[in-house]
Design brief:
With 243 residues, the protein is of the alpha+beta class. The protein has two domains: 41 residues; 145 residues, no CATH class. It has five helices and eleven strands. A hairpin with a 1-residue loop joins strand 8 and strand 9. Helix 1 packs antiparallel against helix 2. The longest helix has 24 residues.
């Protein structure tokens, strides 16, 4: 680990020298950035962070991650810079974004204060919100972005462990239970939505219009909430709000 940081420091010094030289001979900054990325293929922002306790929930049935234990390649935006082809997984139990250290291959936690957004498999996009006043599950502030065009529809994922209902077992067994809460961000305000009535009030749409959209899509609000919200957002953005 010490050798990695010494090497990184040396390379940063080399890059600084290249930058100063570039200022003298008129080299474009994008060219220097390309040189920097070749010298340090694993940016410090990505390869730094606390070690992840991978065995913390071995006794609980299921996974603390959003969908599976498998890590996937994704993209991260950190401090305004986007990094591609980064191995990621999202632990929704602890609300932590996890990756592998490029040298030690240990799982590490990315600093939530620096992460602005990330994208995982199936183009699932997540954003980091600074605050959501009064909401106890905000924690590190990662929310899935269901729709972002004029208005923003968000989903907050979290998991809790509960005693598994197995009356034939002598010992208590635990399993993960996955929950989602939904929000609309309109302007500077974030609104918690639980029902179709909440959606109608926030958007200023007639409730019967909300019901019509859901019915035409063949959906049920309680069973297909994300899909319903996307359908409503699409109508609101492209039709209702244009009138």
């Amino acid at each position: 680990m010490k050798h990695f940081y010494k090497y990184t420091l040396l390379m940063c010094c080399q890059f600084s020298a290249l930058y100063c030289f570039g200022q003298l001979d008129g080299t474009n900054y994008p060219q220097l950035e390309e040189v920097y990325n070749k010298i340090i293929p694993y940016p410090q922002e990505v390869s730094s962070g606390g070690q992840y306790a991978s065995g913390k929930s071995f006794h609980i049935e299921g996974t603390p991650y959003i969908s599976s234990q498998d890590f996937v390649y994704g993209e991260i935006t950190i401090n305004g810079q986007r990094f591609e082809h980064i191995i990621l997984n999202y632990d929704v139990e602890s609300d932590q974004l996890v990756t592998y250290h490029p040298n030690t291959y240990q799982r590490i936690i990315l600093d939530a204060k620096k992460v602005q957004s990330f994208t995982m498999e199936n183009n699932r996009s997540f954003a980091s919100l600074d605050a959501n006043p009064g909401y106890i599950w905000h924690r590190n502030g990662y929310y899935e972005v269901l729709w972002d065009d004029e208005i923003c529809f968000l989903a907050k994922h979290y998991k809790i462990s509960k005693i598994k209902k197995d009356f034939g077992a002598d010992n208590k067994q635990f399993e993960f239970e996955h929950h989602q809460h939904y929000f609309i961000r309109k302007g500077d305000q974030i609104h918690r939505i639980n029902t179709k009535k909440d959606v109608a009030e926030v958007l200023g749409m007639p409730k019967k219009e909300i019901k019509r959209i859901i019915r035409e899509k063949g959906l049920q609000y309680k069973k297909n909430t994300p899909e319903c919200l996307v359908a409503i957002a699409d109508f609101y953005t492209n039709k209702f709000n244009k009138n």
